[in-house]
Specification:
single chain, about 425 residues, mainly beta, eight-stranded mixed β-sheet, 2 helices, 27 strands, elongated
Length: about 425
């Protein structure tokens, strides 16, 4: 959060760190900025191209060691790492936090890196009272001689946030000391975001900094995905569009369904135990558009200059098999049934446990596999005594009017129970 005290309004102001605030005005040297009073100073200590926070402390009585926290969120921008800009990452490590959930943690790290991946500058100047048409916290465009383009002319594309407006008195009356800090937009409309790490339960809206207005954003995916819903569009404003470019052999998968539990056996009874074998569980979903229009490039030409050719896959996971009932092995003994096998997926489904009193004959079902084992992707589980889990989904629309697939050949896309 940003926190300021505005002396001109006599108010404390609190604002979420957002990279989507729009400029409210332009201030120019010689008018709003008194001539030759502006200076700028780098704030290298704030810059970070990679940020990390640990959260989800299950036992609040534990100490504050990292090992007491179960989850972490890391966001990094690899595009600026290289000989042209920065040779290596600069890290921001937030204090461990017991209050955050996944969405809040992802948003915190994303917004910090997006805002401060380039060295921010504090610009300080003096202004006359009659030209104070902006307030603390506003984002403004700055046109001054301390920022010049290659042609020597004043740069007029500097965005900065007003941090301080303090009055000062001299013989002529009252003037104001003003501080601004560089305000970098994370992603403008029609921009491209590279996601080159594993994506698990990823929310694209959060990874884009939670824009408040309708946008068109391209995401380039180059690694793999996992999770019950591996990737979801998120709560983009109406009229937004998401473009997914699968590149570098991206493997879009989700969790396989778990196998059902075997029914429990019984001893010293001639009455058959209940047939309570468990059903197999359904496989997960690779991409849920959540009502947001989406173009997905699997192969062929794309509109990206950096990734002109798509190369990726989406395979719906498999459902888990149903469990087995108990079976009689003597006049008064019933052995617990075997568990059903788990379905294939990026996180394979777990085989169901055998029922109680299995006598060492029944057993747990086999776990699924991360790779295809010959049964194919997007397959239902097997009906045993209990019902099968259904195949997962490659892509579901959830109300989106236009979800368009490019280059989605049979070798690259398996739909399962999805919408395409």
């Amino acid at each position: 959060m940003d926190l300021w005290f505005s002396t001109t309004e006599n108010k404390a102001k609190l604002s979420a760190i957002s990279v989507w605030k729009q400029s409210s005005s332009t201030i120019e040297e010689g008018k709003e900025i008194n001539a030759y009073t502006i200076s700028k100073k780098p704030q290298e200590q704030i810059r970070a191209s990679r940020a990390l926070v640990l959260y989800d402390k299950r036992n609040l009585a534990d100490n504050e060691d990292d090992s007491s926290y179960r989850k972490g969120s890391q966001f990094q921008d690899n595009a600026i790492i290289g000989p042209e800009l920065y040779g290596e990452h600069k890290d921001k490590r937030f204090n461990n936090n017991i209050m955050l959930d996944k969405a809040a943690a992802d948003l915190l790290t994303q917004r910090y890196v997006s805002r401060f991946k380039f060295t921010p500058y504090i610009r300080s100047f003096t202004a006359d009272e009659r030209y104070i048409t902006f307030n603390t916290g506003d984002v403004v465009n700055v046109n001054s001689e301390v920022d010049q383009g290659f042609d020597g002319a004043n740069s007029n594309n500097i965005r900065a946030q007003v941090l301080k407006i303090n009055p000062k008195y001299n013989k002529e009356g009252r003037q104001y000391s003003v501080d601004l800090m560089t305000y970098e937009a994370a992603f403008e409309d029609n921009s491209e975001i590279l996601l080159d790490g594993a994506l698990g339960e990823a929310n694209l809206f959060v990874l884009a900094g939670a824009p408040s207005q309708a946008v068109t954003i391209t995401f380039v995916l180059t690694a793999y995905s996992f999770g019950q819903t591996a990737i979801r569009a998120g709560n983009f404003a109406s009229g937004s569009k998401v473009i997914l470019i699968l590149a570098n052999g991206f493997q879009g998968k989700a969790n396989g369904g778990n196998g059902g539990k075997g029914a429990d056996g019984a001893e010293n009874t001639s009455t058959a135990p209940p047939n309570n074998a468990g059903n197999g569980q359904d496989g997960g979903t690779v991409y849920d558009a959540q009502g947001v229009d989406t173009d997905i490039y699997f192969s062929g030409a794309t509109q990206s200059a950096a990734y002109p050719t798509a190369d990726g896959y989406i395979f719906a996971p498999n459902g888990g098999d149903g469990g087995f009932n108990a079976f009689q092995v003597g006049p008064v003994n019933w052995l617990g049934g075997s568990g059903g096998d788990g379905g294939n997926g990026r996180l394979p489904g777990t085989g169901g446990p055998a029922g109680a009193i299995d006598g060492g004959i029944s057993g747990a079902g086999s776990n699924g596999n991360i790779n295809d084992t010959g049964v194919g992707w997007g397959q239902d589980g097997v009906d045993n005594d209990a019902s099968k889990g259904l195949a997962g989904s490659g892509i579901i629309d959830s109300g989106a009017a236009n979800v368009v697939l490019f280059g989605a050949t049979a070798a690259r896309y398996v739909n399962g129970n999805g919408d395409h």
